[in-house]
Protein 1
Amino acid sequence: MFFWYISLVYFCRLFPLPLAWLFDRWQGDPSWLPHPVVGFGKLIAWGEKCLNAGRARVWKGGMMSVALIVGVYFFTFLFFKVIGEYSIILTALIQTLLIFCCLAGTTLIREVRMVFEAVDRSLDEGRKQVARIVGRDTSALSAQEVRTAALETLAENLSDGVIAPLFWYAVLGVPGMMAYKMVNTLDSMIGYRNERYRQFGCIAARIDDVAK
């Protein structure tokens, strides 16, 4: 009996990552599934609305960013510590779900493939499709430039969506992976060098650079 319990414990510790990877390969990023990044975005938007004004915006943005990153890590860590006292199977299932939410490899590859298929049909269709995944004007791109833009986006986002999350999972487990997704979400929302975010989001952008 003890042998089977130990086997179950090790199995539940090992299977979340491969199972999440298989689920990502099968489903990609289904729109029906509630995503933690949506919640992260709402927290960031609320904090930015309250703090991004007046003086010391660099420090206010930095403190908000650090508080959210550290808060996500410890909330996830404590959540699994509590749940783990009751059910190792439930813990493993929730870990699998969160790992799956943090991975974006299949969706990214699917989007790039759709760009190549679209540009093969017509240049205008290819420009419209690549505009879904790049942040620049695509109306004047040639067919080769459309393909190049898609591949550049794939290379850039492969780090954000696959490599970096797996690195932080290896270092700090699921809590580390979730904290990295908060880092990445902060950068994507406030890490811009425009008038509104240059000061408020500069620390978030630097944290993202270090975390990748």
Protein 2
Amino acid sequence: MNKVFANAQHALADIIKNNQSIAVGGFGVCGIPEMLIDALKDTGATGLTCISNNAGTDGIGLGKLLLSKQIKKMISSYVGENK
């Protein structure tokens, strides 16, 4: 099994579905998988449950998925930077 992908879209192509739970790394907006979050947004998947230290900020990190209303449920210890 080849675990190297040409880009983030190919890495997510066969595994993302609606109503899925996803754990996302990082602390604040440091160390977050920015390209994977952008690729996840582009999939159009909805009803996501995201588990992360935080919910990003407006327009950054998981904040992008919150703005696009793709996240149904957010499980995190800090959400204070989002409207």
Protein 3
Amino acid sequence: MLNTDFTPPMLDGVCASKLHLPPQSLVSVHTIFEYLCQEFPHIDQAEWQQRFHDHLIYDAAGNQLQLNSPYQGNSHVFYYRFLAHEIEVPYEHQILHETDDLLVVDKPHFLTMSPTGQYVQQTLLVRLKKQTNNADLTPIHRLDRETAGVVLFSKRPQSRGLYQQLFAERQVKKIYHAIAGYRAELPFPQTIKLRMQKGQPFYTMQVVEGEANSETHIELLEQHNGWAKYRLSPHTGKQHQLRVHLNHLNIPIQNDPLYPEVQHKAEDDFSRPLQLLAKEISFPDPVTGQIMHFYSNFKLTLK
């Protein structure tokens, strides 16, 4: 009887991805290698060949597959993702707090949360998995690659849903700091409410007419030489919400590569970090019942 309880081991902080294989009648390939090349056309065939050569492809029973391994419909395969070349992010994270269920981490600028695109090893999740040797680590929420600050990770699948529910029920309070333009005519504090949707390019957001679906409370902390430091309290969690809201007020965040205009930077250019910081997070711990409150050790300063 086929053993389908196989779970591939974590390798160098990377967990295997699982891919379902459709019935043979729905595909026109003869080998699993051919199917992977067809399913992921953006990945060079030579890279798949190397993964097979390095024994990084398994079938559902845990057998290492070869380039000529026949296609197995109505099953699944596991594969690992490693990149031949990755740009090293020269900034380090810090673990702020740890319980049996939760890991609270201070994320630096420029570090992507999870493997995607051109980053695998140089992501916060993989760095943490290597550091803790915990393959179950999972982000409970996310920060943009450009944003620094406090982020939460689940350590155990058994309690993960409890923490995720906190965010779904808006029981988590987050406070950000930002350095952005200063306009004397703008009154603060103020609450801005806007309707946001996907923009062009697809990885940006835009403001449109209609009922608001995003809300941020903005306070002015200090200002100097045309720049100001703001305290931002988002009441919703739309993608790029804080960046879009400040840009809408014509005070875009300092060094923002997307707003008001997309500015393409070299991947190894770490000279101008986005001046946005997830400074505080607080929530009732669903396991202990305690009110938890954490602060980033990073600081944004006016110059």
